[in-house]
Design brief:
By secondary structure, this protein is an all-alpha fold. Helices cover 81% and strands 0% of the residues. The protein has one domain (2-231). The radius of gyration is 18 Å and the shape is globular. Keywords: Membrane, Transmembrane, Transmembrane helix. The chain crosses the membrane at residues 21-42, 48-69, 90-113, 119-144, 156-181, 201-220. This is Fluoroquinolone transport system permease protein. Pfam families: FLQE3_permease (PF24686).
């Protein structure tokens, strides 16, 4: 437990020193300014769209860059000789970036909507979204050799999970969207500004738990194979 906390603290400090928090402070200010200029009738939909896309982009691309940077700097050759396990590394990366996503998203929603938000479903949605996409970022980063390859390949993965936006914008709807974790995120985010039933919570958790478990197992084994073939071969 102490080892995990130390690694988490190190990652948060690393992200702070390298401008992650400063960058997202600026991004948050821009989003808030944009939302304050949007006509009142579109504020809720626009803010949900921003929060839906932002934590996923943050975790997915930031962790991809971090993993590939650490690989180029040969950090893994020494890091995993220490008592640190792969589980420790993955959990620290996921939780530290999720913390950043939750802080940024909460500030945006609090300033724009103030007290007209149910923060329980809101925070659950941001947390689930960030954890899931950060794991996807690790999974992809473990399978590519460069940042360019990561950037070229990432839209093929991300676009599948953005399909529920078609329903969100009333373009088309499908019951299959409700099998995706991102549909659950939209249900929670919209409910945070309206009302959620117990069934909505049950649905969101029932959809997310298998996806999070599957993505974690897949990311773990991909990262383990990556270390074995690229770092210790």
């Amino acid at each position: 437990m102490m080892k995990n906390l130390e690694l988490f603290t190190f990652d948060v400090r690393f992200q702070f020193r390298h401008g992650f928090y400063a960058a997202y402070a600026l991004v948050s200010v821009i989003y808030i300014g944009l939302l304050l200029l949007v006509p009142a009738s579109y504020v809720e939909q626009t803010s949900v769209l921003i929060i839906f896309t932002d934590p996923s982009v943050l975790g997915f691309f930031f962790v991809g860059g971090l993993v590939l940077l650490e690989k180029d700097q040969s950090i893994f050759n020494t890091l995993f000789v220490s008592p640190i396990r792969i589980h420790d590394y993955l959990i620290s990366k996921v939780l530290s970036l999720t913390l950043l996503a939750m802080v940024s998203s909460s500030i945006i929603f609090f300033v724009v909507h103030q007290h007209h938000v149910d923060y329980l479903p809101f925070l659950i949605a941001v947390m689930f979204c960030s954890i899931f996409f950060t794991l996807l970022g690790i999974l992809l980063a473990a399978r590519v050799d460069s940042v360019n390859m990561f950037l070229y390949t990432s839209p093929l993965i991300v676009i599948v999970f953005y399909l529920p936006l078609l329903s969100f914008f009333n373009i088309t709807d499908s019951v299959l969207f409700y099998l995706l974790p991102t549909q659950a995120v939209l249900v929670l985010l919209e409910g945070a500004l309206d009302n959620l039933t117990v069934q909505d919570y049950i649905y969101a958790i029932a959809v997310f738990m298998p996806w999070l478990s599957f993505s974690y197992v897949l990311s773990y084994h991909s990262f383990q194979r990556f270390l074995r073939t690229k770092c210790f071969s």
